[in-house]
Specification:
Blueprint (H helix, E strand, L loop, with lengths): L5 H11 L8 H54 L7 E3 L5 E3 L4 H9 L3 E2 L3 E7 L8 E5 L4 E2 L15 E5 L2 E5 L6 E3 L7 E6 L4 H16 L4 E4 L1 H10 L12 H4 L8 E6 L1 H9 L8 E5 L9 E2 L3 H10 L2 E6 L2 E6 L13 E3 L2 E5 L7 E7 L2 E14 L7 H4 L11 E9 L7 E4 L4 E4 L8 E5 L2 E6 L4 E6 L4 E4 L4 H13 L16
Parallel strand pairs: 10-11, 10-12, 12-13, 13-14
Antiparallel strand pairs: 1-2, 3-6, 4-5, 7-8, 9-15, 15-27, 16-17, 16-26, 18-20, 18-24, 19-20, 19-23, 20-21, 21-22, 23-26, 24-25
Length: 499
Amino acid sequence: MSWREPGIYRWSVKILAIPVSGNNICETLQSWWTRASLDNATGMIRIIFPCLVSWDVSKERNKRVSEARNAERFSAEHNGDFDCGRVENSNNQLVQKNEPDGHSEKGCMKHGICSHEVLRDRESDSNSNGDHNKMMRKASFKLSWWCKGENGDQHKHDIVSFEKGNITTAERSSKQISLKWESDPQTVLILTKPNSVSVRILCAQMVRWLKEKKKLNIYVEPRVRVELLTESSDFNYVQTWKDDGEILLLHTKVDLVITLGGDGTVLWAASMFKGPVPPIVPFSLGSLGFMTPFHSEHYKECLDSVLRGPISITLRHRLLCRVVRDAAKNEYDTEEPILVLNEVTIDRGISSYLTNLECYCDNSFVTCVQGDGLILSTTSGSTAYSLAAGGSMVHPQVPGILFTPICPHSLSFRPLILPEHVTVRIVVPFNSRSPAWASFDGKDRKQLAAGDALLCSMAPWPVPTACQVDSTNDFLRSIHDGLHWNLRKTQSFDGPRDL
């Protein structure tokens, strides 16, 4: 609005024409001031009213634009394209919204991980006007899990978190796991080492205590039930199974498994479950035990603590092994899969020739094994055959597949540790001089002829074993007690010293 509005212009002219002398100057000035005030008020209304109308229109327009932007952002968030909390200011500069961390994390963690940090340089740009700070924005990115199709046997355990441009992992599967009963256990399966008098006596005592004191239903092997009934007819409450079909349903009935023996008894217990495995409480009554932390002398205190809970457990990963014959139509046309807790071994058998094995990791060629054979081991089996062949000892909670050659014909052939999500394929080439033989946890031996292949991947059903303290403490104690790892005399105190 121009200052040349009629009312204001007349008021200005009259003020300049006021006479400087006379007695009625006050009355004249008061009269003119009143008329000028009315004219000025009218002019001011003419100025302010259009501004008010324009402000209301602008406010309504901004409201509609804001609603449209919110709708677009909501749609983008649900489509996985949320722009990580960025808005534009009036100068079309990119700035970061001051949103709570929970909302921002929710938007970015839904389908992956976003980078959304916007940085402002504190120093002003010398080439600019000096009022605008230099803007720097980190490149946005998004991480998401990848798997080999809907039918891929990928089992992800990690949760990846994002904070200020840094990627961190948390809540891994190797983290210490605690088991807490939501309802009291009702049924227990007891598996024992055969041909041992001490184990038979302990089994009878344990069965009687669990029934009388804990009121539990008890399952044993048919052989053990016969032994118990031979000792006393009072054990007629002990249950067993009649055929292999009932064994397949044991995981639906049994809440807890107790093993009396060594590591071999634990392997036998794991092999009975082709799918999910109930928690296993292993008591040490064998010659060497890396998976049996409990002592039989204190079985009442141990079982009472386990049944009461909570307890620490170790999730021991298993390998799922499938044999694909040369005549198979595709890689899914396999024989019945086999689960192993320790290792699968491919060797030359009775042949005097070197094994010749082509090895692949997913679709990538690894190497050609020429030697006595190859061991594919779990981390629980790293202290077994793989260790004797030169492999490393690995914590059982570490998910991975150990790739260990047996007496290779090359000194540079060193063991590998592969990630858990890969599938290892071992093929006997057609130019091999002899067939190979595969054994699974030391049994179920199968011949692999030229053209046959063995597929190994991580099984989705681990074996949970109870810990006496925790998984790390039990593992370290087992290698100290079982292998006398790094045991030597302490260096003598006397002798030469640095001055």
